[in-house]
Amino acid sequence: MSFHSGFVCILGRPNAGKSTLLNALVGEKIAIISPKPQTTRNRILGIINVPEKKGHESGQVVLIDTPGVHRPDSSLGRKMMSEVHEALQGCQLILMIVDAKRKWTDEDAFVLDLIKRSGTPVFLLLNKIDLLADKRDLLPLIAQFQPLHDFKEIIPISALKKKGLDELLQHMVTALPKGPRYFPEDQITDQPLRFMVAEAIREHVLFQTREEVPHAVSIMVDQYEEGERLTRIAATIYCDRPSQKAILVGKGGQMLKKIGTAARMDMEKMIGTRVFLELFVKVQPGWRESRQFVEDLDWRRQLEQIAGPARPESDSPKVTVMSGRKAKG
Ligand SMILES: Nc1nc2c(ncn2[C@@H]2O[C@H](COP(=O)(O)OP(=O)(O)OP(=O)(O)O)[C@@H](O)[C@H]2O)c(=O)[nH]1
Ligand SMILES: [Mg+2]
Question: CB of 131 closer than 6 A to ligand 1?
Answer without folding.
Answer: yes
